[in-house]
Amino acid sequence: MMSFSSLFGSYYPVDSSIHNMSVTIKLLNFFLFILVMIGSVSLQLHLFILAVLILQIIESKVPFRFFFNMFYGFRYLYILMVFMFASLGLNLELTIVYLLKFVLIIEYLALLVHTTSLSEFDYGIYKVLNPINFLNFNISYISLVIGNVFRFIPALITTENRVLKCQASRGIDYVHSGVVGKYYAVIYSLKNSLRLTIKRMKEINNLAKLRMYSVKQRRTNFRTGRFNFYSLMLLAFHLLFLYGYILEVNLL
Questions:
Q1: What one-character DSSP code corresponds to residue 214?
Q2: Range of the domain at 44
């Protein structure tokens, strides 16, 4: 059985240019990427983004099988999306674009998670939100909440994998079932997975309190990454994505 935890994964500790990038630049790049994904329907732009993403995956030194498992794990959803788009009357090019959107988003998220530790996520979100600190928002608390969202997704997938293994001994076998059986197994186990994941998130927050973490104090991080030439180059590529989208919608 393919591990559900391998679909989204967790931080993969290795020395690479992507790992050593400034976490604030990573998050800024991700924001620009999502902005383009929301609005663009250009196949050429999506293929260009795919090429840049593949280069980042290679440069990250994270085993390629992690990203392939992510892609392969959603194979049934791709089929469902194709049928849905066909029923809506979308042509072949638009169908490919929307499939690419989904693949690019999940693979970009996987790259972000594999190359950025959770503490860096928290710190990076804090730094990105810091400019609005003049509004007297509790930036540390907001960054903690957003960080918990990033934690929740891989934690849910890992928990779901364990629940599926446990319920296989009770007759609901995900591995040896067909498409309908797999769907039933996942839906049947989802309630318990959500309950256990929420419990796990509470434990993580309690551990943070035991380590004297406080949302009332200014955040620091022993490793923040550096704004180097590689960070600048990737930022330039993401700005090119945005420029391509601007040209697509004739804003210039």
A1: -
A2: 5-248
Q: What does the alpha-carbon distance between residue 66 and residue 116 come to, in Å, rounded to a whole number?
A: 15
**pLDDT tens digit sequence for 171-201:** 666 656 666 666 667 776 777 777 887 777 7
Residue 209 sits at φ, ψ, to 5 deg, of -65, -40
Supply the pTM of this predicted model: 0.74
What tens digit of pLDDT does each residue of 162-179 get?
777 777 666 666 656 666
Cβ-based neighbours of 164, under 8 Å, separated by 6 or more: 1, 4, 174, 185, 186, 189
Look-up of token digits 């929301």: 38
Name the region of 99 (left: φ>0; alpha: ψ -120 to 50; beta: rest). Answer: alpha
* Contact of 199 with 153, CB cutoff 8 Å: no
What's the one-letter identity of residue 235? L
Structural domain total, the chain: 1
